[in-house]
Amino acid sequence: MTHDLLTLLGPLLTAEATAEAYASGAEPGDLEQAVWLRLLERLDAGDPPRDPHRWLRSAVRTEVRRTRRTARAERPYGTEPTDAADRDPEEHALAAARRRALRAAVHRLPGRCPRLMEALLSPKDLTYREIAGELGISQGSLGPERSRCLGCLRRLLTPEVAGD
Q: pTM for the full model?
């Protein structure tokens, strides 16, 4: 039954996600993956949607709204980071300590998060396509996986930042 439902909804989900992604600024693959996850969670809980097509359209729009809310909450830095040449020795030492703490926290992350975060932090400035190829996962999986890994990293760093 689950396989039939996924096969039935696949083309509709691709079309809906593609149509809605542009307006939200999201990647269609990220929207698709988020909706598949919500559907599988529902199915796992024994609560399949009564009208799968209607549910899918609603789920895509819900994910689009969530993406917009998240994008509105993100703010750029008010000023540009200071040039390293303008720093005194103490600031250089503190910046180096922060980089070491970040790298140590990245290595404590679960699963493939350390490899993903290292790729994102790489000075090579890799694209999502390059990172996905390097990790052997789909490009559409990167956004949700990155969010999950950043959440884990945030939880790891919170006690360290609070202690400073």
A: 0.47
> In whole angstroms, what is the distance from residue 24 CA to residue 20 CA?
7
State the Cα–Cα distance between residues 147 and 87, nearest whole angstrom. 32
- Exposed, middle or buried, 159 (CB in 10 Å: 0-12/13-18/19+)? exposed
Sequence-ordered alpha helix ranges (H) in the chain: 2-24, 28-44, 52-73, 89-107, 113-121, 128-135, 139-163
Q: Taking residues 142-156, what's their average pLDDT?
A: 87
The CA distance from 54 to 44, in Å, is 19
Question: What are the tens digits of pLDDT across the range 45-98?
Answer: 888 889 999 999 999 999 888 888 877 777 666 665 556 566 778 888 888 888
What distance separates the 2 farthest-apart alpha carbons in the chain?
Answer: 65
Which tokens belong to 151?
A: 């959440």
CB 68 within 8 A of CB 96: no
- Report CA torsion sign: 129, 135, 138, 143: negative
- Listed residue (74, 77, 60, 76) closest to 22, CA to CA: 60
